[in-house]
């Protein structure tokens, strides 16, 4: 298990150059040395970063007296997850509607499972997220206000930043208190007039809007666009015209390819999304189907969907932070940003022999390769 090192919270042009054999910068600073996956373009540089009061105070090249050495990179942002079903993992292989639809297996199990067990499942998944390098995440909450309270209880004292996209309880229209946004499963799951009222109230309250669309079929994509969401989730059935519309409207997309494989929903056209300049984030989706391990999402995307390691890593870090309104303080290693970073062991049995650290992080790194997280 990686060491979790907690530090207090508190624009870089070029990294500073430290003199050869430089001594420790300041006694109250934490110094990380090695290959730094640096800046918003994630360029590997040999050097160091200094951390003070929870922020990155300096980044530079050269040797310093460091506290820890390794590959230093930003932690992950999981842009879409359902933590509520963590208590009943690995259900039978069923069509999507029978798994997670309004009358599906998930809804039935949520209603039958004791509250304490649901919270314990979420708490364990949150701990797994921490251990596998995730810092911030967006959860689609079922169950109205009661569901939101369960996640808040599970996340208490966890070193994670939570964005909750809540859903009103049946028959209600107001987004539950404590939510960052309104999360709609699909436009086909609700009466159109009810959706309009939910969105109107959410927007009046300054909430973000996210909608599942184009997962099992394309038919709900046009309606989702008409609601002017901040981002859409899945879009595995999207066609060229849909992707062009997303690009023209400036709507971000969040993909969940491992989940789409399990449910038979097809894989999203990530390459085309990137070519069109769409901001694409990545989520692990339902915990009952997948572990909340972002390394595994990167492995699949880099192998099957997009042979561009820098873009894949960006989707799982800076893009996710942008979608969640956090990119000014998270998602990349730059002076002034919060030091939400992890140190990866480039000499592990898994990574030894790597010729390009970023490629190896994206294609083969695992949580067991993490030395420490901050």
Automatic annotation (TrEMBL):
Keywords: Hydrolase. It comes from the Archaea. The keyword Transmembrane helix does not apply. Signal peptide: none annotated. Residues 71-346 form the Amidohydrolase-related domain. InterPro entries: Amidohydro-rel, Metal-dep_hydrolase_composite, Metal_Hydrolase, MTA/SAH_deaminase. GO terms for molecular function: hydrolase activity, acting on carbon-nitrogen (but not peptide) bonds. This is Amidohydrolase.
